[in-house]
Amino acid sequence: MKIRTVCVDLWGTLFVDTPGSDNRYKPRRLADFDSLLRGEGHAFTMGRLERAYEDSGAYLRRVWAANRDVPVGEHVNAILRALDPRLADGVHADLRAALVQAYARPALLVPPALDDTAAAAFARLREQDTTLVLVSNVMRTPGTVLRALLAKAGVLQYFAATVFSDEVGIRKPDPEIFRGALRAVGGEAATALHVGDDEVLDVEGGRAAGLRVVQVVGREGDEPPSGADRTITRLGDLPAAIRSLEAE
Predict the structure, then answer these.
(1) pLDDT value at 69 more than 80
(2) I want to staple 156 with a disulfide (CB 3.0 to 4.6 A). Which of 13, 140, 151, 204 is the partner?
(3) pTM of the model as a whole
């Protein structure tokens, strides 16, 4: 059976960098928050800002543990609440917008590394009338910024839709995020495949939604046995893996 729709993971798959690489943007976020808040008369020590950032992370982990997500503005609210409960409701709209921008934008300054075999593979699949849709959990960098990174890298054009957890409120491995991605492009699980690196988020999540799965392995050293239909080490190998599945 022909694979008509391919869902593609972002972190650890299209981006070689793993989700944890988002942590490197913390110093820039905190420095910008310090500058913006001080400019409005809200002065905090860097130690207190760091604790608020970590408190917001604890809040986000509780949300994410339920396979749910929140918009980036709520990340900023969580930091402000941890600094001073009055701040979350008390900052004016312009300052709030500036804080959201400062929180979201560091990845634009130091972009994650891209799998340099991806574009050719995507072009080949699109020539074969395969519809591509990006399906990604986000960490602290929101979908709006990730789209800009993909556009700058020249690969956004290959996707008929991009589905980010902070925008739909659902995270992998919940099968509903895969179903929503398929609905966005008129795809069906029976003729769809998901490619990703994580055994739980991508392999188990994709299978729960009824998709066949190709797992990207080998980027983090030794990998556990995969429950995927096929494994690859880079996206350049994806067209061949799909041909193999279609031949079964």
Answers:
(1) yes
(2) 151
(3) 0.94
